[in-house]
Amino acid sequence: MPKKLADQQTIEKLYELAGRPGDVVTTKTVSFDIMGRGLTKYDVCDALRDWIDAGMDVKETGMRGQDSGQSGYEIKPRINDNLVYCKFVIRDRDGTDELLVIVSAHPDH
User: Fold this and answer.
1) At what angle do helices 41-53 and 8-18 cross, to 10 degrees?
2) What sign results for the dihedral spanned by CA atoms 7, 13, 19, 20?
3) Whole-prediction pTM value?
4) In 3D, which of 56, 45, 42 has the Cα closest to residue 14?
5) Distance from the Cα of residue 74 to its chain's centroid
6) Other C-beta atoms lying within 10 Å of the C-beta of residue 17
7) Please, which residues have CB within 8 angstroms of residue 59's CB and are 6 or more apart in sequence?
8) Could you give the count of Cα atoms lying within 13 Å of 23 in the half-sphere of its Cβ?
9) Is 11 helix (H, G, I), strand (E, B) or coil?
10) What is d(CA 22, CA 19) in angstroms, rounded to the nearest whole number?
11) Which residue, among 94, 100, 71, 87, has the nearest Cα to 13 in the 3D structure?
């Protein structure tokens, strides 16, 4: 069954949050994945914004682990000529602030 597409409001929120990469958080695994490929969270945030600007589909998926029950959002952009699977989640900080977390950023096989 194909994954559901993210709604427009969520896409706008992802775009907004990715526009502040200094505030974006990565998981420890993502930090190692991107560092090992010479990338930064800024590169991943730029890829998300470029993806959205190009009108590409952002797919919604369920999360497991720490973010179980929340929606995650997937894209597969090309970063430095490599196809990269990226997954993001929007977390709520203290009920007042939203935080973009990069939970996956690795080569897509």
Assistant:
1) 140
2) negative
3) 0.92
4) 45
5) 6
6) 20
7) 3, 4, 5, 6, 73, 74, 75
8) 13
9) helix
10) 9
11) 100
Domain map (residue ranges) of the chain: 8-107
From the centroid of its chain, how far is CA 40? 13
Q: For 52-87, what is each residue's pLDDT tens digit?
A: 999 999 999 988 888 888 899 999 999 988 899 999
Both tokens of residue 90?
A: 């929007």
Residue range 13-59, pLDDT digits in tens: 999 999 999 999 999 999 999 988 899 999 999 999 999 999 999 99
CATH number at 8-107: 3.30.2310.40
- Is the Cβ–Cβ distance between 51 and 45 less than 8 Å? no
95 — pLDDT class (breaks 50, 70, 90): low
Strands 59-62 and 25-26: unpaired
Predicted pLDDT at 18: 98
The rounded distance, in Å, linking the Cα atoms of 21 and 16 is: 10
- Collapsing DSSP to helix, strand or coil, 60 comes out as strand
